[in-house]
């Protein structure tokens, strides 16, 4: 049982990463697709009850945003893995322009998410944390965080 949280501004590669790495093994929970928090909550709770591995493919910019998923998943015994997508805002804006017209995010929206973004940390409840960068041509660089869960707890 695993909850994967994708964290980063719009057009940073999160959905492409999901499709390359998790499409065959995890249910995708995504507000763009589900449209409402109510539908998202229903699907999330169903995955918790069914012990179904899942990926929350939203921006998840703040610790508070991530806690809505981490707290109940942790309580249900899920492993919590986070992937933080490190990207410059200008790169996201450039990739955003390449999206189909109906999927383009206003630049103000990307900037607002960037301004709210809080780096994830082990104190939030993550069992594993990774930093992801786009390498181009659909490839990603993934680096495991060097801070261990034990180190995080000793800093409290």
Automatic annotation (TrEMBL):
The lineage of its organism: Bacteria, Pseudomonadati, Thermodesulfobacteriota, Desulfomonilia, Desulfomonilales. One of its GO terms (biological process) is DNA repair. GO terms for molecular function: ATP-dependent polydeoxyribonucleotide 5'-hydroxyl-kinase activity; double-stranded DNA binding; polynucleotide 3'-phosphatase activity. InterPro entries: P-loop_ATP/GTP-bd_All4644_prd, P-loop_NTPase. This is AAA family ATPase. It comes from the Bacteria. SUPFAM superfamilies: P-loop containing nucleoside triphosphate hydrolases.
């Amino acid at each position: 049982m695993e909850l994967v949280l994708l964290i980063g501004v719009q057009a940073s590669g999160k959905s492409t990463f999901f499709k390359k790495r998790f499409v065959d093994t995890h249910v995708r929970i995504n507000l763009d697709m589900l449209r409402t928090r109510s539908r998202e909550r229903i699907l999330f709770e169903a995955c918790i009850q069914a012990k179904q591995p899942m990926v929350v493919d939203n921006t998840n910019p703040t610790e508070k945003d991530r806690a809505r998923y981490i707290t109940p998943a942790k309580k249900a015994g899920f492993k919590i893995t986070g992937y933080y997508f490190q990207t410059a805002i200008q790169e996201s804006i450039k990739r955003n322009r390449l999206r189909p017209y109906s999927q383009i995010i206003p630049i103000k929206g990307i900037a607002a998410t960037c301004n709210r973004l809080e780096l994830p940390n082990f104190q939030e409840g993550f069992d594993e944390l990774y930093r992801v960068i786009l390498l181009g041509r659909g490839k990603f660089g993934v680096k495991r965080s060097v801070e261990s869960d034990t180190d995080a707890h000793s800093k409290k």
